[in-house]
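Entry — protein

Goal — fold tokens:
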Amino acid sequence: MSNATANLSDVAKRAGVSKSTVSRVLNNKLGNGFSVKEEVRSRVIDAAKQLNYRPNLIAQSLTKSKTRMISILGGSHALSELGNIYQTVVNNATAVLDESGEGFDVTIDMSSHSKTDSELPAWRVDGVIVLASCSETTMQELESSGIPYVVVNGPAGENGASVVPDDVCGMVEAINHLAEFGHKKIAYAGPVGKVLQGHSSLQDRFSTYLSEMSRLGLEPIFGKGDVCASADKFLESVVIARGATAAVAYGHMGGLNLMQAAHAHGISVPERLSLICFCDEYANRIMSPRLTFIDLRTRDMGRIAAELLLEKIKSPKQELNRLVKLEEKLVLRESTAAPAST
């Protein structure tokens, strides 16, 4: 017999006990008048190890009221870029789930799905965490099935919860910081135009940049398209040609690309150009000089999302129609200073 095919009956035979005894020992469900000697318990565990026995989680999910399985959806789009914010979210969410003592197995869906596909796994799960977004079909299934779910950095349906950063607050912090240094020519280095129809952060950051510049009586300065793909053109058209002395980058990759391009053009940071980006502390560690940044609170997003999910799993009838909005924070580092002319 191949160890890979070992089942409950094989373990019971090797240990010389019944299948029910094996099941109770391995699931740690002794009680209600049922007990085993320590010698029997050790024999069962040793037999399971010798046979490389692994429980059939799918089969268990069909028979148990609780599966002890959590699915994280959206990995294909949220985790595709190295160093992005969702890695920190997932790390902190899984840490909370592990520390709960409930014995959850957490899976992450990294498959690509069409817009009409369901992203839910074939097996039953106790709860779901969605990274940013999922297909409309998936959302409808989550809403109709009653599976507890939380969306991180995206909208939830009527029966779910959502944990998001406050991008409006973050942009206000960034512009005010640069204005207090005396910058008058503050550029926005991020997606503009038709791409703003995507994630809400695209619209929130750009529209808040425009409104804050208007409030301060300053002229908005920005390039075209996505600065991540054209940092050199952005510097040439916005910094060199129009004299911008500061820039707020949409994300850490845009900030990093601008910093590298600035070095290539002989533009010193922060003496000639002050830079701020939106990111998390982990992503900021890879940059030199270290960028002043708007902290998206990714650790807190992951932690709170997991806590909300655990709360709903434990109390299914409890209302979970919540929107938790986390205030973004300005973290001062080495890439911002007063403009050279002041």
